[in-house]
Write a structure and sequence with these properties.
- There is one protein chain.
- The chain is built from 16 helices and 5 strands.
- It is mostly helical and 342 residues long.
- A hairpin with a 6-residue loop joins strand 1 and strand 2.
């Protein structure tokens, strides 16, 4: 009995259940989230053992104090981790501790102590978007052949639907619904939440041609929409391959658009689309739904106003301001001097 009680008090005694069951089956977290939490707890475990000299078999919940976690955050920062990475590690530990506290009320003090560890302040970055001219150029950069059509379709769909890279690679042939009045794609988002995203007319037409060229009369809708052939079998195209494709075409137009970032990544298409929708007057709530955000607060990072929007906002509050009149009006001498006369 004493051994069992000791085992339950050990900090890492519930990580397997937390990662393998709770996050997946009860919290319905995506594989990417589960992986990031596993990485965070792994980094913490290595810190406990390698830096503090404590074994998994001895490190308890009581040992995980506020001061212990503050030291861990300092360690991460000194190792070069960004504020965002430090905060992600801390979020995973806090979530794990609250899960343990829900399982055993005696562990609530540990979870509460961890909740008082502050997150690091992250600098607000002005994340880049692609200009309309650069978008048009990168869309037309692929050659007019079979592979070029695939590469072009990947970039068009990333922009038109504003999907995440993982959502694009996860699309199946059956997710494209083109034989309806309003063509759309079904997207499997974070937390296994499906959503429907309408296609523009041009994107739908491109997708029809792509499917005809790459899928023909395929009978199985479970085929990946974008695939690579390995040993005669079709496999989902990898995220790394898509990143390579995008940067190949970005490099090909860089001479014409030297202001392009050194690396153009897939999420930039999503950010550009969201920003363009907002600046075109689409309501933030609708943009949020297209992006698959659970809250408009998340969408606000894409709500960057254009110069035209800012000017309209400024002009709308200028009704009280008088029209400017030349200060020399009615002054014959001043007007003569302006004409170079005396």
């Amino acid at each position: 009995m004493k051994t069992d009680k000791l085992a339950v008090s050990l900090f890492f005694s519930r990580t397997a259940e937390f990662l393998g069951n709770y996050l997946v089956n009860q919290a319905a977290k995506s594989p990417c989230t589960v992986r990031s939490y596993r990485d965070a707890l792994t980094v913490f475990r290595r810190y406990v053992h390698n830096e503090k000299g404590l074994s998994i078999a001895k490190f308890s919940f009581q040992d995980c104090t506020r001061e212990f976690l503050l030291d861990f955050m300092v360690f991460l920062k000194e190792k070069g981790s960004s504020p965002g990475t430090c905060n992600q590690r801390l979020t995973a530990i806090k979530s794990y501790l609250w899960y343990c506290a829900d399982c055993d009320i005696a562990l609530q003090p540990s979870a509460l102590a961890a909740s008082h560890v502050p997150f690091q302040r992250e600098p607000k970055l002005n994340r880049g978007t692609l200009s309309g001219e650069a978008l048009a150029a990168i869309f037309t950069a692929p050659k007019a052949n079979r592979i070029g059509r695939r590469d072009q379709m990947i970039m068009i769909l990333l922009y038109d639907t504003a999907v995440r890279l993982s959502e694009l690679t996860g699309m199946l042939l059956s997710d494209a619904n083109l034989a309806v009045a309003e063509p759309y794609v079904r997207v499997r988002g974070k937390g296994n939440k499906d959503r429907i995203v309408a296609l523009s007319d041009k994107a739908a037409e491109h997708l029809r041609h792509y499917i005809h060229a790459f899928h023909g009369n395929a009978s199985s809708g479970n085929t990946p929409l974008f695939y690579t052939v390995i040993k005669g079998a079709r496999h989902r195209v990898s995220p790394g391959n898509i990143e390579r494709i995008i940067n190949k075409y970005a490099d090909s137009i860089r001479g014409e658009f030297p202001s392009l970032p050194d690396k153009v990544y897939p999420h930039m298409f999503r950010r550009t689309r969201a920003t363009n929708l907002y600046q075109s007057g689409v309501a933030l709530e609708l943009v949020s739904r297209i992006l698959g955000h659970s809250s408009t607060e998340t969408t606000k990072i894409y709500a960057a106003p254009s110069i035209e929007m800012l000017k309209k906002a400024m002009e709308s509050a200028n009704g009280f301001m008088p029209d400017e009149k030349p200060i020399w009006e009615g002054d014959e001498d001043a007007m003569a001097r302006m004409c170079g006369l005396r």
